[in-house]
Amino acid sequence: MFLVNGVFDVIYSVTQILTLVIALYQFAISIFGFRHRKEEIKHAPRKRFAIIIPAHNEERVVGPLIDSIKSQRYPQSLFDIHLIADNCTDHTVYVGEKHGSIVHERRDNEKIGKGYAIQWMIEKLKSYNKSYDAIVMFDADNLVHPDFLAIMNDKLSFGHKVIQGYLGIKNPFDTWVSVSLAISYWYDNRMWQSARSRLGLPCALGGTGLCINYALLQQIGWKATGLTEDLEFGVRCVEHGVIPVWAHDAKIYDEKPITFKASYYQRLRWQQGHFNCASRYIHSLVKGSVNERRFMKFDMAVYLFQPMRSLIVFAMSIMLFVFNLPFVNQTLSLHVYQIIPEPIWVWISAILFLEMPVALMLERVNWKAYVGLILVPIFLWTWGPVTLHAYFTKRNKKWYHTIHKRALRFDQVQDP
Predict the structure, then answer these.
(1) How far apart are alpha carbons 24 and 28 in whole angstroms?
(2) By C-alpha distance, which of 153, 179, 150, 242 is closest to 205?
């Protein structure tokens, strides 16, 4: 029994230290998100964009997206809208053509998923009769702010090669699930993405609202066909010394799941893809950060480690709960050694949670979001079971399609 106590204390102590260091690291970065100044657009329109929209049975939502793109305050002669009707069995093709996009029908029952559809479209563009300066990617359920392309043109003109737009939510107050996800995104946009950008660190790519320099794409290729193609491409950019930058004022609005089940499977796919990327790239990133003395690679490695950290914390919390049950404790006589005093954990947890309402205030979000804060801790806790499930199924590459139903127009979206 002494051996069991010893092993548990060592593992738990290492976990405490690791969790504390990462929490402090996250807090230190978040401080730089408190301030944001809207950037002035300084360059006239000159970049030509190929806008790619992967769509699988999206007849309900793709029309308003195309309309919002065509309403850009940017010359329509400088962008083309390419809609990928990916193995569609509904009226996505008809809706896409009706709203004025160039529709490309794709049929492939083996290479299934968004990453494969994007790769197929990029290859097809090589033989297209127009040259482009950049590719922009949107999900079919999105809505796009009128200044999006103008801001991307400005960023590209300053020399940036990979730009991630602001990830807004078009249906934040549908259910407790959608508002919990919305709060998470508002927090991440301000206290993580914007903060990291101010520090010159790579932002995390979100899979939509993404702009990529076309020459860079031809140089390194897409090659991101996993469950989290955005994360995979972002890691490859960092490996090639390219820092993805954040455009806080280039906003897109994404539909979030309204049921816990749909949210669970969406997050499961994200975590499965995250584990796959971590297993493939984390070692080379850490090695590269040491050999090349490039902190951005170490930072990306820390980001890839996040699901594993969450899994460790979740597993240890369950173990502590079980071992503290009276009959279990009496049987094992287990003594838990707290290397870090409990009040420190209370203060750190409180500070990190209080940053959420601060982020909502900074983003000037509707008052309804503050009511949603009551349920956020429950939703955040559910990441534990999701991550545990993802870990044991991380070899799975099945794509879970999220069904979208909220066919809102841009003027119906509440802009935070």
Answers:
(1) 6
(2) 242
CA distance 261 to 326: 34
From the list 98, 100, 89, the residue with the least C-alpha distance to 55 is 89
State pTM to two decimals.
0.90
| C-alpha pair distances (Å), 356 with each of 116, 203, 352 | 36, 19, 7
Taking 60 as the threshold, does the pLDDT of residue 332 lie above it?
no
Alpha-carbon distances, residue 8 vs 16, 149, 277, 327, 378 (angstroms) = 12, 54, 29, 18, 27
Q: In the numeric block, which tokens belong to residue 19?
A: 């969790």
Residue 232 near residue 190 (C-beta atoms within 8 A) = no
Residue pLDDT, tens place only, 42-51: 999 999 999 9
Domain 1-416 has CATH 3.90.550.10: yes
Q: What is the pLDDT of residues 116-135, one digit of tens each?
A: 999 999 999 988 888 999 99
Mean pLDDT, all residues of the chain: 88
Q: State the DSSP H helix or E strand holding residue 253, giving kind and residue range, or none if neither.
A: strand 245-254
Please identify which residue in the block is written with the tokens 């360059």. 43
CA-CA-CA-CA torsion for 271, 274, 276, 278, nearest 10 degrees?
Answer: -140
Torsional sign, CA 238, 242, 248, 252 = negative
Specify the DSSP element, H or E, that contains 42.
none
Q: What backbone torsions phi and psi does residue 365 show, to the nearest 5 degrees?
A: -80, 155
pLDDT of residue 37: 87
By CB atoms closer than 10 A (0-12, 13-18, 19+), residue 257 is buried
Using CB atoms within 10 Å of the CB of residue 3, give its burial: 0 to 12 exposed, 13 to 18 middle, 19+ buried. Answer: exposed
Q: Which two tokens stand for residue 376?
A: 């956020």
Q: Report CA 256 to chain centroid distance, whole Å.
A: 12
User: Residue 39 corresponds to which tokens in the numbers above?
Assistant: 């950037």
pLDDT at 408 exceeding the cut of 80:
no
**pLDDT recorded at residue 396:** 78
> In whole angstroms, what is the distance from residue 137 CA to residue 83 CA?
10
Angle at CA of residue 170, ends 246 and 248, nearest 5°:
15
